[in-house]
Amino acid sequence: MHGDETVGREMLLHLIDFLVTSYRRDPVITRLLNNTRIHIMPTMNPDGFEATKVPDCYYSPGRYNKNGEDLNRNFPDAFENNNASIQPETQAVMDWIKNETFVLSANLHGGALVASYTFDNGNSVTGSLKGYSRSLDDDVFIHLAKTYSFNHASMYKGTGCDNRQTFPEGITNGYSWYQLEGGMQDYNYIWGQCFEITLELSCCKYPPANQLEKFWRDNKAALIEYIKQVHLGVKGQVTGKNGTPIPNAIVEAKGRAHVCPYRTNQQGEYFLLLLPGTYVINATVPGFKSMLKTVEIPDNTGNFSALKQDFSFPEVSIKPEAPSCPKIPLYQELERASAAVKPTLHILALMTVMLVIFK
């Protein structure tokens, strides 16, 4: 995302080469590619990379795009109004996210050695007052971050890049590290139905070229294991009359209703990343009764296929239109709604006390 943080760019070029040269030679890579749609964008900020004339470990103007904007502060934010002008690179990525059914992703950075997970921003609804901004899928995000850090040559040690900052087990909640408005990983999770983490791959943002081979060795296994995690959880198709796919049906795990409901794509497909365990999956076609199914989810990442659970609504013959989830600070609205409820509870408690006294 930042043009002067070059290790991620090079690692993705190495990854492309490794995948295509290992196909039909390495059985694991062959099965991975046969069962997984993988999209790789080596750089989101080519102008920033080209502008970095003098490599520097700490800072250069190449962090920003040609318009001087930080692309990882440029996305709509779910917690506060982001007044930054949407850049062409950001809009292109937002369109890409909208047009594809992405399930798992990572964006790559430099300047630290840690796997950071959502939320990057927060408010009282997500517990930010305690210094940690927790999503409903916090357990999954911790697992994803640990998957990368523990398969990396040294990230799991959590030593950081200097004595001032350490990251236990090589992971951190984004907000706990530092608050960030307009970040890509929060946008992807809320509006893209995609679980994304941020990977900081090098203490030096623009290291010498002769170190790249070691960086690849350090990250190779972690990148592959991370991609496998797209097969966590449950997937399936929602169909109607005569088996016709139903797009825009809401499919969520009970207790994990996202602020923007996760919906089926145009083929009626849904994908939910969940750790092994027992869950109740709720499928809802607007205007019709919901359908609940209890599922026992195993760890199927080694089999390269999530548990399959379809839903059939034979009485449905229409394709419901999905109201687009507005790109506004949705958690700000939740916080206001929560605050509005509290006085009622206090009055109710006071009335109960008074009733007891009167009795």
Automatic annotation (TrEMBL):
Q: Which biological process, per GO, is one annotated for this protein?
A: peptide metabolic process
Residues at the active site = 200
Which Pfam families does this UniProt record tie to the protein?
A: CarboxypepD_reg, Peptidase_M14
* Keyword Glycoprotein annotated: yes
**Domain Peptidase M14 intervals:** 1-230
Q: Which GO terms describe its cellular component?
A: extracellular space
Keywords attached to this entry: Glycoprotein
Q: Does the keyword Glycoprotein apply?
A: yes
Molecular function as annotated in GO: metallocarboxypeptidase activity; zinc ion binding
> What PANTHER family would the database entry show?
CARBOXYPEPTIDASE M, PROTEASE M14 CARBOXYPEPTIDASE
Q: Which family does this protein fall into?
A: Belongs to the peptidase M14 family.
Which named protein is this? Answer: Carboxypeptidase M
Organism, per UniProt? Buteo japonicus
